[in-house]
Amino acid sequence: MTADNSDPLFSAADDGWDMPAAAPPVALYLELDGWEGPLDLLLDLARRQKVDLRRISILDLVDQYLAYIDEAVELRLELAADYLVMAAWLAYLKSALLLPREEQEDPSPEELALRLQLRLQRLAAMREAAARLMARDRLGRDVFARGAPEGLRVDRHHVWQCDLFALMRAYGEVKLRTQPVVHMVRERLVMTLDAALARVSAMLGVTRDWVELRSFLPKPEGDTWADPRLQRSALASSFVAALELARLGKAELAQEEVYGPLLLRRGAS
Amino acid sequence: MNDAEADGGPGDLERAVEATLFAATEPMSAAAISAHLGGANVAEALAALGAHYAGRGVHLVERGQRWHFQTAPDLAHLLRREREEPRRLSRAATECLAIVAYHEPVSRAEIEAIRGVQTARGTLDVLMEAGWVRVAGRREVPGRPVIYATTPEFLSHFGLASRRDLPGIDELRAAGLLDPVEDALEAVMAGVGATALEAASPTDPLGEAPMNSGHGVAEAEENA
Amino acid sequence: MNDAEADGGPGDLERAVEATLFAATEPMSAAAISAHLGGANVAEALAALGAHYAGRGVHLVERGQRWHFQTAPDLAHLLRREREEPRRLSRAATECLAIVAYHEPVSRAEIEAIRGVQTARGTLDVLMEAGWVRVAGRREVPGRPVIYATTPEFLSHFGLASRRDLPGIDELRAAGLLDPVEDALEAVMAGVGATALEAASPTDPLGEAPMNSGHGVAEAEENA
Hints:
Distance between the termini of chain B: 83 Å
CATH superfamily of the domain at 3-74 in chain B: Winged helix-like DNA-binding domain superfamily/Winged helix DNA-binding domain
Number of helices of chain B: 12
Number of strands of chain A: 4
Oligomer: heterotrimer
CATH topology of the domain at 3-74 in chain B: Arc Repressor Mutant, subunit A
Helix content of chain A: 40-55%
Largest sheet of chain A: 3 strands, antiparallel
Helix content of chain B: 40-55%
Strand content of chain A: 5-15%
CATH architecture of the domain at 3-74 in chain B: Orthogonal Bundle
Order of helices and strands of chain B: HHEHHEEEHEHHEEHHHHH
Largest interface: A-C, 58 and 69 residues
Order of helices and strands of chain A: HHHHHHEHHEHEE
Radius of gyration of chain A: 51 Å
Structural class of chain A: mainly alpha
Distance between the termini of chain A: 128 Å
């Protein structure tokens, strides 16, 4: 741990950063396909500093990344957009870190740098975990299951269940389903038009006052007239009869309002 | 390794032979095992393994000079178990069974005619698997169709001494099993409604119909 | 049976469990073994078998509560097949698998947030095809993203009794490295107050933990 500096995160790299000397840049910089995106490249650069990711200098890391991108551009390598976006963002971060603290905006550059550092730690942790996982004794590579297991078989065998009542009910259902069905049209009680004509004209003969059409209908007291269907039939037939009588001039029809009672009286002639 | 052997535990070579045979996809000759393990002499290891596994659930066996592990013969039944699963007879199968019981012997075509629905072959198979229906020969008519009848197991399962114990049509009707849905509806209507209905149907022709089919069944029963 | 047990030989139930697991084509849970053996309590037999096989060339292991026999790890050099590793995973796939295993259940977006790069659809497909990763429903947040988790086969393949055995998972959790960046950031900021500079100082709680992960990283690098 370096206690010499109040600012271990962003201090200049005085804690073992030997990357430029240790790794000849050309070999590193010629290849771009080796990294899976800017974060991957940043992690690799950070590791070259050979320090705990907790104490890495983000400022140095930014410098390295920008230098890398510059060199790649000089070599006219095609750079993916996300590398350039990261370069722009890091350049902004660097300038913000170098500005006097009073002028910092929200979120502070320190927070942005910390966020980057935390992301690098998490990626590094997962990369390490993956390596340790892959190095385990793996089934089919290091340890083996039985080569020729006999296999287990379970033969399922149904025990069918049914009782006498179910049997009887089933037979009853068959019988019901298949017995011949007789359709019968029942005789309906109706008042024919002729009957209505006779009845209405007979009743008109007596008076010349306006009478509501309904009062021409047979009264429901009679036993056969209790059927509402017969009453509807009588009303319809009586209405048609009234129209017919009006057409012939034997009756006059009046209705004072829409859906109001239909009034009828003997014709003047 | 020597310590382990002194303790009665397996030696390295024995363990290696054990693992090799366990992982092998087919039986291996001693020579093949030896080749796999860099030329070691495996005869002793095989003998030790054979002795070790003799009392266990898996045995090391030699067949035609090739070695492999195999389930102990007295446990072979574990490899193939039978399990009984209770299952309700489907509606179609129950109908089919009832028709066979009342009309036997019947052909498949006759069953379909009575049911008024096509009967899947599987339905009769299920009844035969259950042990309740058997093939009772062929009918001597064109096409010689197979005819079916019930079995003694059918009678014992349903608690019947003989087919004569099957409830007759009158008993079915008394149990309400022959009440058509339409009749029930009509009865409700009539209860609510008025004279018109009564006038319309002084004698309900539908009321007669079950009588006829009732006779039919009675005849079938007598014929049988 | 009693004689055999008195001799230290296996009892009937132990032999039956042994035979069943030898014959099974897939790892079996204790419940499945019990069901196959007519409902016997197999816990003791499994423990006895585990102890018996501990020193042998074949081991009895439990992976994700399912049991199977496999060859002893120290014999790997003898048994390793000559051919290539059956599934050679890309780096992207291994990282993805680690993220799913250590963070499960996890959405694709969360995987991408950690890796800092888009994850090709094929990467997860490869892991699912291998039988190591499965879809584990959807997260009930806007967009209802699909979430992924590992399978029992994953545990079997990598020799893990459960997810708790994932290498280093306790240290990673203690170091907060399995928490999202936002949470860690909040913890750091809240822990120290005004300036983020102090937050990163070695005296804060997060500052201590990473020592471990730092070592871990160094080790991984050496392993690679």
